Amino acid sequence: MRTQVVIIGSGPSGLLLGQLLANEGIANIILERASRDHVLGRVRAGVLEQGTLDLIDEAGAGERMHAEGLPHEGISLAFDGRLHRIDLAALTGGKRVMVYGQTEVTHDLMDKREAAGLATIYEAGNVEPHDFSGEAPYVTYEKDGVGHRIDCDFITGCDGFHGVSRKSVPSTAIRTYERAYPFGWLGILAEVPPAGHELIYANHPRGFALCSMRSTHRSRYYVQCPLDDRIEDWSDDRFWDELRRRLPAEAAAGIVTGASFEKSIAPLRSFVAEPLRFGRLFLVGDAAHIVPPTGAKGLNLAASDVRYLYWGLREFYRENSSAGIDAYSSRALSRVWKAVRFSWWMTTMLHRFPDTDDFGQRIQEAELDYLVHSQMASAALAENYVGLPY
Ligand code: RFL
Ligand code: PHB
Hints:
Layout: E1 5-8, H1 12-23, E2 28-31, H2 36-41, E3 47-48, H3 50-59, H4 63-68, E4 70-72, E5 75-79, E6 82-86, H5 88-91, E7 97-99, H6 102-115, E8 119-121, E9 125-130, E10 138-143, E11 146-151, E12 154-157, E13 175-190, E14 199-202, E15 209-215, E16 218-225, H7 236-245, H8 249-252, E17 260-274, E18 277-278, E19 281-283, E20 289-290, H9 298-319, H10 323-350, H11 358-373, H12 375-386
Parallel strand pairs: 1-2, 1-12, 2-8, 5-14, 12-19
Antiparallel strand pairs: 3-7, 4-7, 5-6, 9-10, 10-11, 13-16, 13-17, 14-15, 15-16, 17-20, 18-19
The structure holds 8-demethyl-8-dimethylamino-flavin-adenine-dinucleotide and P-hydroxybenzoic acid (PHB).
């Protein structure tokens, strides 16, 4: 079998890249280890930057997102018993974010791909990229016990943090940077109306909490928890009690409780691999970098990598120029590192660390107090939250 671009991974990066390339007439095949239902069952991101919306629109998959997504013009920071609103739109000249679940984005892109008759091979086992340092790369995989080979011009590793693409690169050719945080996020989804109509990020001596949502009738809440906590130890009642304790009274009063239908603990990590290109293999999205979810940047960074790589590949096929793919790694990484910095900073300011003592707590509160009362500091937060320019 032969195609122009093999895409490993059918998460948002792989699907978005595949659709943009296909719209441009560039043939591609997606190889996905999991089943379609498994991919759609993962609950993850919820906040999309304008640049991500634009790219989904360019792919032609934005219709339902605009109909059902919730545009947000602000967020609140909670600390010292009070809520403080950051007016994102006023501070950024009218920019907003959209609350629309990653699962929905993935769904829309999968539907679009299927309607266009583009190939995705689900439950592809032992996917392996080969010979990407030369001119004739290929990918092997197994399906239903039978081995297959796809020859191609380029391989794109859109296979997430635990994928095979980054691991296929010789360790001497890649450099990684990492910070693991000493806590996790316990998250739940419940079919109840959200506490308010915007997100609330809360700093509290008991630990961080986040009030988010998926729609006007579905809420997504998180509380910081120790990494070794087990889901079984967190009944819904315990979760709701802990969440309310970490919020100012006015926000806690707005919490509507109900049975959760999803509950999971996610570790927090910052990670960057450099570079993002190895001959004819490119790393994209979580395959190359991870940020803690505090800045809502993971999916948005995946989309930003896709944008730069799409530009590069389009230029290669349209104009026979490799300038864009040559610039991919440095262009993408420059945006990645700024989001890594922002996510690390938000995480550091809002969470309780094992060594946070009373002094540390007061320093966090002083920083937050400065942030919400200084127009310039608020504007810097808002500028990063809505997404830095490309
Ligand atoms: P994904 O989504 O991990 O998709 C990778 C795909 O590759 C497949 N795969 C393989 N396929 C073939 N062969 C192999 N060997 C393979 N190995 C893996 C996998 O099955 C999968 O289908 O990576 P992608 O596409 O780069 O997308 C990245 C985003 O998923 C991620 O950055 C975000 O979810 C992060 N994130 C958030 N990002 C935001 O922008 N805003 C948010 O509000 C936000 N909240 C979050 C988040 C992530 C979270 N968790 C659980 C990690 C909240 C949470 C709790
Ligand atoms: C979410 O809704 O899952 C969400 C929102 C904002 C974040 C992280 C996660 O910063």
